[in-house]
Amino acid sequence: MLRLRIVLSVSLVFLMAACGASQQGAEAGEDLYPVVTDPPPEYGETVTVGGAMVSKPVKPTEYEMEPSPSCERQPYKSASGNGLMIIPPRPGLSAKAVSERSVEVSWWFEEVPDDCRPVSVLVSIVANDAPSATPTTVTVPYSGETGTTTVDYPEFLPPPDVALTSTVMARGQRSRTAKVLIRR
Questions:
Q1: β partners of residue 116
Q2: Do 100 and 74 contact (CB within 8 A), yes or no?
Q3: What secondary structure letter does DSSP report for 35?
Q4: Are 20 and 40 contained in the same domain?
Q5: Longest CA pairwise span in the chain (Å)
Q6: Residue 85 to residues 30, 32, 92: CA-CA distances in angstroms?
Q7: Are residues 109 and 71 in the same domain?
Q8: 3-state class of 132 per DSSP?
Q9: 121: CB partners within 8 A, 6+ apart
Q10: How many CA atoms lie within 13 A of 81 on its CB side?
C-alpha cells in the first residue's frame, strides 16, 4: 500500500509540473496572439445532382484578402478537456487567371514568428457554383513571407472562379482559410 502511495504521489507531481509548463506556454502566447473563431460557412441553394443533395458555399465578393497580423490562437476540444492552440497566420491572398483553366495564386504574410511558422501552404481553386466541382489543391513548401504558384484546373469542369489558401505547421495545426474571387 505504501508503494502505491509513493507511485501515485510521484505521478501527481509529474502531472502537475507538466500542466504548469503547458499553462505557462498558454499564458505566454495569451498576450501576443488573439483568439480567433471563424463563423460557420454560409451555403447557397441546395440542388439535387444524380440523386444527391448538394449545397455549395457562398462565393466570396472580394478579389484580395489581407493576412492576419501574426500567429493566432484557436479554441479546441478534446477528450481531456478544452484549450487554446497556436495556429499559423492566415495568409493574404489574390488570384488571377492566366488562361481559362490556369490560375496564378499569390499569398503573403505580415509577420510569421517561430511560434507558428508553417511548413507548407495549401492552395486551391474551384468552380464554386458548379454542383459537381471539387477544389484542385496543391501543397507548396513554405519558403518565406511571399509566394506565388500556378494551379491548373481539370478540362471536364467549368472554369474556376474562387481561390483559397491556408497554411499548415509541422504538427498539423492549420490556419484559417483565405478565400477570394479569381480576377479575369
A1: none
A2: no
A3: B
A4: no
A5: 76
A6: 10, 13, 21
A7: yes
A8: coil
A9: 91, 107, 139, 140, 141, 142, 147, 165, 166, 167, 168
A10: 4
**Per the structure block, which three cell numbers stand in for 151?**
494551379
Shared domain for 16 and 48, answered yes or no, is no
**Mean pLDDT computed over every residue of the chain:** 86
Q: How many CB atoms sit inside 10 A of residue 108's CB?
A: 15
With b for 16 or more beta-carbon neighbours within 10 A and e for fewer, the 147-156 pattern comes to: beeebebeee
Looking at the structure, tell me whether residues 10 and 65 fall in a common domain: no
One domain, residues 155 and 74:
yes
Measured CA distances, 154 to 39, 50, 181, 183 (Å): 31, 20, 18, 19
24 lies in the same domain as 85:
no
End-to-end CA distance of the chain: 76
Q: What is the CATH number of the domain that holds 159?
A: 2.60.40.10
Question: Within this chain, do residues 85 and 166 fall inside the same structural domain, yes or no?
Answer: yes
| 91 Cβ contact list (under 8 Å, min separation 6) | 67, 107, 108, 109, 121, 165, 166, 167, 175, 178
User: How many structural domains is the chain composed of?
Assistant: 2
pLDDT tens for each residue of 11-38:
433 333 343 333 434 444 556 899 998 8
Q: Do 97 and 28 share a structural domain? A: no
Range of the domain at 86: 35-181
pLDDT per position as a tens digit, 72-83: 999 999 999 899
What pTM did the predictor assign? 0.81
